[in-house]
Amino acid sequence: MSTGFNRDRDEFARGGRALIVLPDQGDAHRDADARLDETAGLAAAIGLVVTDKVAVRVRAPKPATLIGSGQVEQLAVQVRQDAADLVVFDASLTPVQQRNLETALEAKVIDRTGLILEIFGERAATAEGRLQVELAHLDYQGGRLVRSWTHLERQRGGFGFLGGPGETQIEADRRLIRDRMARLRRELEQVSRTRGLHRDRRQRAPWPIIALVGYTNAGKSTLFNRLTGAHVMAENLLFATLDPTLRQIALPGIDKAILSDTVGFVSDLPTQLVAAFKATLEEVVSADLLIHVRDIAHPDTEAQRSDVEAVLAEIGVSEMTPRFEAWNKLDLLDTEQHDTMLAEADRRDDVVALSALSGEGVDALIEQVAGKLTAGHRRYWITLEAGDGAGAAWLHAHGEVLGQVSEELETQYEVRLAERDYERFLQR
Prior knowledge:
6-stranded mixed beta sheet; alpha/beta; 4-stranded parallel beta sheet; 428 residues
């Protein structure tokens, strides 16, 4: 992955100094201080030291610099005073805006998309994750070559297969990027096919799949560890989890289910990342049940909920997929807020209030999950050969056997099953 930010990363990435700037365009759904804190957390996720957080009111975005010239001058003074290496704009900047701001501020500038891509690039642990992040980086970088690379104005003679004579270096570099992206997409398609085969095998097994989804740092991995006894990285850190993790769990009335911990979403998640991580997020698309984990103590919890729902729709999750919300982090609320949230959750059948950290409410969550997965069960009469012990064990594990009539060569079972499980049983 080659970005201008990456190449100079050693100057400031670990212990480097960053000024956070929020161009505030009057979003009534978000708290400006909470947004600044989130961006500071994103910067901290790659080891940057935040010197200050500044909200800049933007009434009419400027094509050249996004913010006004007077505001740019004020920021330039602060950059010098803070000895900042980097200015992080919590917004999307065009390549021209980014270049102009770097010139005016005399510091490297990166926007929200670039910052998130850097975090993903550092955190991706698997070969698949690295492929996905590199693809997203190249897609993002393709339009910013004019900013990042200093040799692009050179002309060179060309050969027929590289373009005509006088092809600019920027055209050649873009061609290299396109070729690399094509190779990455082919590799990811193979990964996706392999993942699809594994998923088909699980569905034929068949075990229900439960996917934890939610905003980054909502506590999904802590809840995952609580439910499975696993030791997935769970820190108070944005994007602590990038690669999906699957574990089997037992639930009341369900012998085995697969629980999936997924990458956290974030507001303004780069479209390049949504596209690149489609293979990973297919686990969410195919899930039998979604648990939307929310940080109920966060001031922007409602806006975060909307962001997650928007990404779920974008990746193709059906509105028919059963889901409910886990209102997490009760332990961070004061007594009055805590009791209010519990009372509100008790009034609803699509919410469980809990603390994944302390364990409060987790038993209620398990009952809710089991209830959702077994809801809508129907009664079936299924005939098995007398020696089909595996089939009989499957019915007992995945359904409720209400009765049976045995004859010499076969046994008829009266069993209550979910329609999906009945279809799976027929395919076994």
